[in-house]
Amino acid sequence: MRQDYGEAHEWNLIFVRGFNDWEVDVVAELFHFLTSHTPTSEGPDGIRWKLRKDGALDSRSFYYVLTERPDRSFPCRSVWTVKAPPLVSFFVWTAAWKRILTYDNLMRRGCTLAGWCYMCQCDGETVDHLLLHCHEVSALWSFCLSLF
């Protein structure tokens, strides 16, 4: 929360947990960003919908975003600018384009394998199943997200 004291401004952020070693630099960047930028308008803070001049979200403009922009693709450039190991960026990039070596992709390349998911031994292994729908992977995602 930002508090104003006349000309002086102070940020009072409360974090729910301590930082890991690899997060300290990111938090320092956040504080640097907050202290170097000041809001341009007076008045209360709020969230604005950019597709309407009044800033209000309505179903028409949201429907437009969902239907009228089929050419919108995955933001590939942002994958490579994130502070992550190159192998992680490469995996995210190939997964976004559905090119990781899952059963369905290997079958297209002529490989003959068992047609089930290696993690749960159930459904056919596709990129979506392996990363999103597999119940074994869901438990793994829940564990990973609980660490943050």
TrEMBL record:
Domain Reverse transcriptase zinc-binding: 59-141
Domain of life: Eukaryota
The protein, known as: Reverse transcriptase zinc-binding domain-containing protein
